[in-house]
């Protein structure tokens, strides 16, 4: 049976770097544009009667914008530049929640089976990213089983010891939650297997595959501090094994965004955002919800506006990457005036040192965000402060 390990060849790393930089360049602007489109279409949706023609148009705009957002997300995930929204999760819950979608993806011809290990430790993970990895693996499995077959998802806890690490140099020491995804499809020969994690490597016809699916999965696992390998044999099917570091603690409840009713407030919010489309959208959304908004279009203006109004400002919504002064620097200066001022940092991607040293998880908001999520995060933080 052929095995392939996590690729770490030099050329591969160079490619990662190049595409990473490309993705960052695109993501910054693109995420902002898409975020603005999403926000404005949500505002439009709230204005028109459900069931009307206009309502359907807004729904379409919103849907397409969401798809565009997913595209950058894939690229960023591959480049390991995705700003992760991590929390403690049980992988079994993620699989259970994604099950219906996976079944739809693989179709009726494929039997989906899940063997979920008992007493699984939690992972510190971005649920959206784990779901993304699952979807990419499911689509590949489906394509490998055109005549139907079985797709098996298995979770278990595993201990990686030194012996194993010596044998497989890509492995890491410690306790891991192992997710195995096996199909009974066509399998791969050694030559293909060796290249599966390579970006843009595809054996599919033009228009049927971009070759980013597994590269993305690879990026996601890596960014979570894990590792991945693949086993396959022609005609015998394929197994991907994803190892995620296990952490201590309990699962934090998964937020059910759509269910909470939207609540506004009368507090004053400083919105520091250099992208005009996003700034105007956020200002509009928050004003509609009753908030008073003070807007700033770069880091220096954010600091100035804060200094002028610091007694009234209840919360700051701040882009991490802004001209003149980064959000982290503004934050440092602002904290000297008001050490406990609540801040939500918004960002589309990570770059070391851009964020103040590990802000609490509920203080970062991934771009592009919807107006619904924005409203909820704001309210939660404001209420928490009063409690
Ligand atoms: N489960 C599988 N069984 C057989 N071959 C697979 C399987 N998964 C991936 N492959 C092979 O690896 C290649 C790369 O997969 P990857 O998901 O990265 O890209 P893709 O599926 O071709 O395109 P994309 O996922 O971007 O639409 C595939 O083209 C296919 O040849
Ligand atoms: Mg694929």
Overview of this structure, please?
This protein has three domains: about 1-80, Helix Hairpins; about 85-245, Heat Shock Protein 90, CATH 3.30.565.10; about 270-385, Response regulator (Rossmann fold, 3-Layer(aba) Sandwich). Helix 10 links the parallel strand 11 (about 315-320) and strand 12. The protein is of the alpha/beta class. It has helices spanning about 10-45, 55-80, 90-105, 125-145, 160-165, 190-195, 215-225, 275-290, 300-310, 325-335, 370-385, and strands spanning about 1-5, 85-90, 110-115, 120-125, 150-160, 175-185, 225-235, 235-245, 270, 290-295, 315-320, 345, 365. The longest helix has about 40 residues, at about 10-45. Strands 1, 2, 3, 4, 5, 6, 7 and 8 form an eight-stranded mixed beta sheet that branches. Bound molecules: adenosine-5'-triphosphate and magnesium ion (MG). Adenosine-5'-triphosphate binds next to helix 4 and helix 7.
How would you describe this structure in keywords?
Heat Shock Protein 90; 8-stranded mixed beta sheet; 5-stranded parallel beta sheet; Helix Hairpins; 44% helix; binds magnesium ion; binds adenosine-5'-triphosphate; Rossmann fold; 13 strands; 387 residues
How does CATH name the architecture of the largest domain?
Answer: 2-Layer Sandwich
Reading off the top of the CATH hierarchy, the class of the largest domain is best stated as Alpha Beta
Estimated radius of gyration:
23 Å
| Assembly annotation | single chain
Bound molecules: adenosine-5'-triphosphate, magnesium ion
Strand content: 15-25%
Helix- and strand-based class? alpha/beta
Sum up the overall morphology in one term: globular
CATH superfamily of the largest domain: Histidine kinase-like ATPase, C-terminal domain
Note the run of SSEs as H and E: EHHEHEEHEHEHHEEEHEHEHEEH
Uncertain residue segments: none
Number of domains: 3
SS elements, strand count: 13
Give the mean pLDDT. 87
The number of distinct helices, counting runs of at least 4 residues, comes to 11
Helix content: 40-55%
CATH topology of the largest domain: Heat Shock Protein 90
> Gap between N and C termini, in Å?
59 Å
């Amino acid at each position: 049976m052929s095995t392939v390990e996590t690729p770490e060849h030099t050329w591969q790393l160079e490619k990662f770097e190049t595409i990473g930089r490309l993705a960052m360049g695109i993501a910054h602007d693109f995420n902002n544009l898409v975020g603005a489109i999403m926000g404005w279409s949500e505002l439009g949706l709230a204005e028109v009667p459900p069931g009307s023609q206009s309502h359907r148009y807004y729904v379409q705009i919103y849907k397409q914008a969401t798809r565009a957002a997913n595209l950058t997300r894939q690229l960023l995930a591959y480049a390991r530049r995705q700003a992760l929204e991590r929390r403690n999760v049980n992988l079994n819950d993620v699989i259970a929640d994604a099950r219906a979608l996976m079944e739809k993806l693989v179709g009726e011809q494929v039997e989906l089976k899940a063997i979920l290990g008992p007493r699984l430790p939690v992972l510190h993970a971005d649920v959206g990213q784990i779901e993304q990895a699952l979807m990419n693996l499911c689509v590949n499995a489906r394509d490998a089983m055109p005549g139907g077959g079985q797709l098996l998802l298995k979770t278990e806890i595993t201990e990686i010891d030194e012996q194993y690490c010596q044998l497989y140099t890509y492995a890491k020491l410690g306790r891991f939650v192992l997710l195995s995804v096996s199909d009974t499809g066509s399998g791969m020969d050694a030559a293909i297997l060796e290249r599966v994690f390579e970006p843009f490597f595809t054996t599919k016809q033009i228009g049927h595959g971009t070759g980013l699916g597994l590269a993305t999965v690879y990026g996601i696992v890596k960014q979570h501090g894990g590792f991945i390998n693949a086993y396959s044999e022609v005609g015998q099917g394929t197994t991907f094994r994803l190892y995620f570091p296990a952490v201590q603690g309990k699962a934090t409840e998964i937020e059910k965004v759509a269910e909470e009713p939207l609540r506004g407030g009368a507090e004053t919010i400083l919105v520091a955002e250099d992208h005009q489309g996003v700034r105007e959208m956020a200002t509009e959304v928050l004003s509609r919800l009753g908030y008073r908004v003070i807007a700033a279009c770069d880091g220096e203006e954010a600091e100035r506006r804060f200094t002028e109004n610091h007694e009234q400002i209840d919360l700051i919504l701040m882009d991490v990457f802004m001209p003149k002064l980064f959000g982290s620097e503004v934050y440092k200066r602002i904290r000297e005036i008001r050490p406990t001022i609540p801040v939500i940092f918004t960002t589309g991607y990570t770059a070391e040192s851009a964020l103040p040293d590990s802000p609490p998880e509920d203080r970062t908001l991934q771009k592009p965000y919807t107006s619904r999520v924005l409203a909820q995060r704001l309210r939660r933080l404001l209420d928490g402060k009063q409690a």
